[in-house]
Request: fold
Amino acid sequence: MIINHPLLGPRDAAEFIYLGDASLIDRPDWQAEDAAAKFYEYGYLRDNPAGQHQELWYHEQGDRSWLVVTRNTLTHEITKVELARDVARTRGRDK
Amino acid sequence: MRYSGFRVLREGLTGNKGWKAAWREPDPKPEYDIIIIGAGGHGLATAYYLSKEFGMRNIAVLEKGWLGGGNIGRNTTIIRSNYLLPGNEPFYEMSMKLWENLEQDTNYNSMVSQRSILNLIHTDGQRDAFVRRANAMFLAGADAELADEAQLRRELPFLNFDNARFPIKGGLYQRRGGTARHDAVAWGYARGADSRGVDIIQNCEVTGIDIENGRVRGVQTVRGPIRANKVAMCVAGSSGRVAAMAGMRLPIESHVLQAFVSEGLKPVLPGVITFGAGHFYVSQSDKGGLVFGGDLDGYNSYAQRGNLPVVEDVVEGGMALMPMIGRARLLRSWGGVMDMSMDGSPFIDKTETEGLYFNGGWCYGGFKATPASGFCYAHLLAKGESHPVAREMRLDRFKLGHLIDEKGMGNQPNLH
Reply:
């Protein structure tokens, strides 16, 4: 697979480390009443779709950036690559 | 029809006209006591043990494609019970004992071959870990044997003992481990279950699970609705998709794992050899092909095929372990979809929906588990409680904190 890095252009997927579902950006509030239940869901449960999947890749053998890659799990086709930083900011996680 | 040497002789002398199909092709009935979703190894084994050991006959096994067409036909056929943790090892040892008697039990030649499995040791720390593992295996009644370098140099002279990065310093043998003919395992269980009245319905995809007031009532299929008060999911690889029909999210990611086979060679490998440090394991099939594999590709996939970097990685591992493999030509490679769970261990449990059961999360170790998985799942379905050796394989263990994490990797499925 070739990942079209937003800053570096097309790079071999072998340069990256795969973390998993991009919902891992949405870390729950640790002070909430239901924090234990929310962290269980956050840490352990996955949608695991067959089709479009947003996921986190880390460019370890490159510029050490985190990317959100939109990829089809049935065909491995990559349709969108964004910097995870930008995705997190648009989701209101600017801290 | 009972298979025997006498039968082979008689059919041979009478033009082989007396053989019958190994199983029927029934149409689905409107209602069953139990519906098993998935006619793979585990689903068929479940139906087999339900009908044979627990006296239940009114069972349907529904299969989207053809029976045995999933991971039971795509694995590297290794059987072993060399686990460490008490939540796993007694289960896998039960499986090994069922393997040892499988052919007599099912009256089907599954080609179970206890040709041994060897895990290689490269460091003192690894030896300590394997000594501990061997003791854990003894506690569960399994066999284990520690081999030193001199013994391995005598037995396996073709290994690269002096690899600069991973010199071979010994190994942990399980002599009762080995291989089995994977397709024949599915066929033997299918034939045994079918002969006891289980309906195995192929080309019958489940498209929905009917739930009323928190209780399962049946399934919707491409061949119409079928009612049942117990529905048992058994679709490792596609667990996420099927569980989603019941509104469940699982502690599972689907990953692709590749496997490879070389052209047929004369016998060169006595048993199964695993080279954990180099992410490579290999055995030789009875047909002569070297069957080998390595790591997951590492990303979520339902594609049943992988990518080239992993092919290169696996073949490099093979060359590092036994340079003679470079003389063999690669014949085929393929991929299978694994349920990778959050701690690397499986699930055999009830769900929050009454009457709905779940079996999955086998990671890349489902084949060896087939007999015990079927037996324990049948126990759960028939008696409503977990079999003692599968008691820790709970679906809610992450909520409770009782993980079964053999490798200690945490909730990162592609590292298990």
Q: What stands out?
A: DSSP finds eleven helices and 19 strands in chain B. The longest strand of chain B covers residues 252-264. Chain B has two domains: 21-77+182-251+343-415, 113-176+253-341. The mean pLDDT of chain B is 96.
